[in-house]
Design goal:
By secondary structure, the chain is an alpha+beta fold. The chain has 3 helices and 5 strands; from the N terminus they run E-H-E-E-E-E-H-H. Strands 1-5-4-3-2 form a 5-stranded antiparallel sheet, covered by helices on one side.
């Protein structure tokens, strides 16, 4: 089972980051996923096709430490032990292409300013 973890301290408040993660940001980065809160405003878990993971927020001195983890699930062969002797093709485990890059991209996106300060709209 392959797993990935990326973390960074962002100069934003935990409630601000929580609102973005609970919204569409995580779904935009990971695709169609189900998001479930495990600890309000601290940790949430997500599950999608072939992968699952969590996002954890921890207060830091100059902002909020965001840790994103993801695990790629492996499939067990249907035939089990005897598949080796029958010479049946074994299904390849699902891979999620570019998962680590998407997690890093999500951190980059969360850390960037989305509105310009002191600008009237």
């Amino acid at each position: 089972m392959a797993s990935y973890e990326v973390s960074r301290t962002l100069v934003k408040s935990p409630p601000e980051l929580w609102a973005e993660l609970e919204g569409e940001r995580l779904k935009q980065a990971m695709g169609e996923v189900k998001v479930k809160t495990t600890e309000p405003e601290r940790e949430l878990r997500w599950e999608g096709a072939g992968a699952s993971g969590k996002a954890r927020l921890e207060p830091s001195s100059w902002g909020t430490k965001v840790t994103l983890t993801a695990t790629v699930e492996e499939q067990v062969a249907d035939a089990g032990f005897w598949a080796r002797f029958r010479r049946r093709p074994v299904a390849e485990p699902p891979t999620v292409e570019g998962l680590e890059q998407r997690l890093t991209g999500l951190l980059d996106n969360l850390g960037s300013a989305h509105r310009k300060p002191f600008v009237r709209e």
